[in-house]
Amino acid sequence: MKTPKNHIPYITLPSFLRRVLKAYALKALIREQGCEISRIGRSRNWQLKATFEQLEQTISLIEQSEETSWQWLATHLSKQRKNLGFDMLLTIAQNKPEITVSELMQRTDCTIAEARRVIDTLEFG
Q1: Which of 21, 49, 83, 100 is the most buried (most CB within 10 A)?
Q2: CA 102, CA 22: separation in Å to the nearest integer?
Q3: CA 6 to chain centre
Q4: CA–CA separation, 93 vs 49, rounded Å?
Q5: Is 123:104 a contact under the CB 8 Å cutoff?
Q6: SS3 state of residue 39
Q7: CA distance 30 to 108
Q8: Integer Cα distance of 2 and 99 in angstroms
Q9: Could you list the pLDDT tens digit for every one of the 125 residues in the chain?
Q10: Dist CA 108 CA 51 (whole Å)
């Protein structure tokens, strides 16, 4: 997961159209969550721009769907969600100021050291 200067991370989706059936419906589902999905140049790879909350919603909706070819995307997004950077973790914690270290770890799959660093930064500047 890469984070450009506007702090909205993007995830590369290799061979997106070749891996899914009903790609138009999947793209519509993703866009309904407020995510941006776009093709990278003229390649067969796509990229998804989404906040952490949008990723969570998208993953849960894909897992609830009955389309089996979409499950690789839910798995891919779940793996990428674990690679959150410090800035993204800080943004998640700022959106929920009363978050605890264990809750942050559970929600984002970050390490205890990363979670403590984020909470300490929030509390002590």
Answers
A1: 49
A2: 38
A3: 15
A4: 20
A5: no
A6: strand
A7: 20
A8: 24
A9: 555 545 667 889 999 989 999 999 999 999 999 999 999 999 899 999 988 888 889 999 999 998 999 999 999 988 887 777 788 888 888 888 888 999 988 888 888 999 999 999 988 87
A10: 12
